[in-house]
Amino acid sequence: MASERSTVGDPPPEPARPARRRLRLVLRRLYAPLLAFFVTSAAFCSAWALRGSYPFGNTGRALNDQANQYVPFHRALWDLVHGQAAGDLLFTWRGGFGQQFLSDYYTYLGNPISWLTVLVPRARVDLAVFLVTPLTMGLAAALMAVYLGKLVPGPWWQRGVLGACYGLCGWAVSDASYIPMWLWGLVALPMLGIAVEWCLEQRRWPSVALLVALAWYGNFYTAMMATMAACVLLAVRLITRDMESGARLRAVWRAATAAAVGIMLTLPLLLPSFLSSGAAQPTDASSFHPQRIEVFLSGMLPATHLWGGRPRLYIASLGLILAGSFLLNTAVAKRTRLVWGAAIVLVAASFQFPPTQYLWHGLAVPNGNPYREAFVFSGMLVVLAWLALAHRPRPLHLALSAALLVVATFVLRHTNDFGGATWAAVLGGGGVSLLALLLLVTSGKRRYLVPVAAVLMVGVVFAESTLAAVNADERRARERWAAPAATSNRSITHHFDAVRDVDGWPAYRTDSGAPQTAYNDALALRAEGPQYYSSYLPEATYKALEPLGFGYKNDGRTFFGADNPVLDAIFSIGARVRPGDAPNSWTAARFPAPPLVTVRSAPFTSPNPADSVYAHQEDVLGAAVYDVPKVTRTGPDTAQTYTARCTPGSELYWYSPALYGTVVSDGARRPIEDKLSGVMKLGAVPASGTVAVTVETRSQGAAPEHPVGCLDRGRLDAAVAHLKATGATKVTTSGHGIEATLPRGASGTAVFAMTDVPGWQCTAGGTATTPTSHHGLLALPVTPTTGTLACSFTPRGLTPGLAAGALALLALTSVTIASLRRRRSGAA
Asked: HEC string of 743-761?
């Protein structure tokens, strides 16, 4: 047919070739970040394998809060995503008898890579949490490789190697490797550096705002440090970059407005967390004391891990040698060298000056390691190293820098806790690094030396950083807090199964019991007991639980269970799990418990001494169930014996929060750990009625005036039966709410088995009612016509945070649409 035309042999459409070219360009841009990512992740995982850490061996991987907080919280996230949580994003009924969850989510689960943990089986969540570390470090290294290319163009493999130097800096491998949310700050710094460059180029304002939001979404604490560092980077670039005054002002305006909008986008999380922090149980954080100058400088040497909270500021020898040659490199403009040099010196000095150190930490006293912003210094060192390398440093300058590194190591070798790994890194890693750099800068027409230099540079950073990570693990393990803990084994699996077997929520709570695998066992094992460890544990919860005899530590931000039937009755605990007779086995038992909502028809005051823990329990319970006898103390401070008389056959309980040692009663010996132990059962009162309790201790102090309580189980059973008969006939819970139906004619005070934390709004009989406090527990007044109660929890600050976030989203959307319209009109 005349209208048809053969296409056999026709050339490909014209757009195909540019498309392939664009694809090649995109792939080429990925070379540097991919190299940085793989070197960083592989080096860190290799250190695990060399140490025989799980999953490469039987040694536990979880350190300190990684076992006690991060793994349990990630398991709670898994439960939340898979619809198996008792609670929602705003509130959890598991732990602390019900607590806010939004601030915990933001603080402990904000790292976006943490969401990978919901993709694995629940039994493997701990392994996924461990993998968050190398993945986040690798991402940080990749972004640093991209950022370096925006500062000065250069070979992709060189940027990739220096990106790995950043991802494997001392702060990452020695301080934050077990803290997945803090590691997001390592990502935030180069990400915000890229945002700074876009502001200087007068482009991508919406993207800048989104990068700021992403940085702050991951973790506000380290994002704040990274944002301050970005301000330093912006100031340096404004001074060193050739720009007109008007362009500088526009860049500052773009950066300020984008940062404001980006941070506002996170206010639905940030504002409730800020207010929760203000309402949290305060800690006795000590004031900041800067380290001696030789200790501070030692922290800049590669593979150095000094004892305790010392600064870890180092990067691999390759980066240090290049950074040291920066000021000598005349190929770099003099103004650039002076400004960058002054900036890094001032940043280092600010770490030692208390007012600026407080500024880095958000005007708070650093609790724990006081140099949590160390990654900022390491990042700036890498920038200097890249600026030097991109301008082809001279061999003499490199040799002088390497010699200075060796001399500094020799001078600082007497620093307390100086380790041999530093010498290996300086002499071995530094020697290979210097050789690789000399081959590179002298290659000239001998281009075959370039791949040799590249292999040496990649290899030395990989090997030296692996050594640094292994050294950090080995030396950190000397400290008691860093003893590796198991987060999955046969005992933990059986413990979890035992808890599930007696689950009865919300008819009653299940206590996962002791001994605990982690401080947050309630979250990890899907129980509803008091076990809870969070920086946001409210002061109101502490004031409610501490007088009742629950064990605690960390200045009251960590609470433990207490195997005490009176506390079980108060908090509607109807099942408890205990260790079985066989190894790794657990047994569970159910027992009668009042509902979550009970009614007190009249106020009650205990007849026992008002300052005793047993009187406090009775006041909350609303019934007298203890005999609290007078005690007589004899013996020396190291073996204090307390004698008293009780009703034969009653149950003997002991409380001494100031003593640490061993309690001996009726021949049985039990460890006691001051505030951590809480109220403990010692056994039955003998037929003689005389009880003698001896505490073997080296701690200062003594038991309180009334350490002994003798429980009458008959009276307690009667009190529980009364609370069940007069309590709610039906209780239902939602994600962050609770509803109860009361028996007809109930009047007095309805008491909820949860602490009166800020954020509850309630109705009684459909009418809004202001909650009251019943000795620290949430309570509502009820009349015979009330009938139903309903309470809902909303974190303080959530509503204004959502409003501010919506306003920021509107501004971001408006600017984006306006930008697209201008672009289209320009194209037209």
From this structure: CCCCCEEEEEEEECCCCEE
Beta bridge partners of 589: 576
How far apart CA 752 and CA 742 sit, in angstroms, is 12
Fold of 626-711: Immunoglobulin-like (2.60.40)
The closest of 73, 179, 95 to 537, measured between CA atoms, is 95
Q: Kindly report the number of other CB atoms within 10 A of residue 19's CB atom.
A: 10
Q: How crowded is residue 59: how many other Cβ atoms within 10 Å of its Cβ?
A: 14
HSE-up (13 A, CA, CB side) for residue 522: 27
Residue 464 CA to residue 478 CA, distance in Å, equals 22
Token digits of residue 8: 């056999």
What is the DSSP code string of 118-186? GGS-GGGHHHHHHHHHHHHHHHHHHHHHHHHHHHS---HHHHHHHHHHHHT-HIIIIISTT-TTTHHHH
Compute CA 543 distance to the chain's CA centroid, rounded to the nearest angstrom. Answer: 24
Q: What is the mean pLDDT of the chain?
A: 93
Helix axes 245-265 and 798-827, enclosed angle (nearest 10): 140
Amino acid making up residue 385 = A
- Residue 728's pLDDT band (cuts 50, 70, 90): very high
| Cβ atoms 164, 141 nearer than 8 A | yes
Residue 645's beta-bridge partner residues? 690
What is the C-alpha radius of gyration for the chain, rounded to an integer number of angstroms? 31
Residue pair 66/73 in contact by the 8 Å Cβ criterion: no
Please say whether the beta carbons of 741 and 750 come within 8 A.
no
Q: Please count the residues of the chain.
A: 828
Give Cα 170 to chain centroid, integer Å. Answer: 19
Residue 178 tokens, joined = 């077990």
Q: Which is nearest to 123 in space by CA: 521, 525, 485, 585?
A: 525
Closest CA to 149 of 92, 290, 157: 157
Tell me the C-alpha distance between 793 and 756, whole Å.
Answer: 11
Helix (H) or strand (E) holding 772: strand 772-774
Q: Which residue carries 């070379």 as its tokens?
A: 31
Angle between helices 245-265 and 267-279 (to 10 degrees): 70
- How high is the pLDDT of residue 1? 40
Kindly give the pairing relationship between strand 532-533 and strand 639-645: unpaired
What is the per-residue pLDDT across 748-797, written as a single tens digit (0 to 9) for each? 999 999 999 999 999 999 999 999 999 999 999 999 999 999 999 999 99
Torsion of CA 435, 440, 444, 445, to 10 degrees: 90
Looking at per-residue pLDDT, the higher value among 285 and 263 belongs to 263
Q: Which residues contact 743 (CB under 8 A, 6 or more apart)?
A: 599, 726, 727, 728, 729
256: tokens are 């300020």
User: Which residues, in sequence order, are CB contacts of 472 under 8 Å at separation 6+?
Assistant: 173, 174, 177, 305
CA distance between the termini of the chain: 40
Domain extent listing, the chain: 110-278+293-482, 490-599, 626-711, 722-793
CA pair distance 540, 522, nearest whole angstrom: 20
Within 8 A by CB and 6+ apart from 448, the residues are none
What pLDDT shows up at residue 222? 94
Rounded to the nearest 10 degrees, the angle between the axes of helix 156-167 and helix 317-325 is 110
Q: Are the beta carbons of 646 and 652 closer than 8 angstroms? A: yes
Give residues with Cβ within 8 angstroms of 336, minimum separation 6: 240, 387
Distance CA 586, CA 579 (A): 4
**CA angle in degrees (0–180, nearest 5) for 718-724-729:** 165
Largest CA distance in the chain: 120
Both tokens of 618, joined, read 């009775």
Confidence of residue 445 (pLDDT cuts 50, 70, 90): confident
178: closest CA among 222, 219, 218, 132? Answer: 132
Contact between residue 796 and residue 758 where contact means Cβ atoms under 8 Å apart: yes
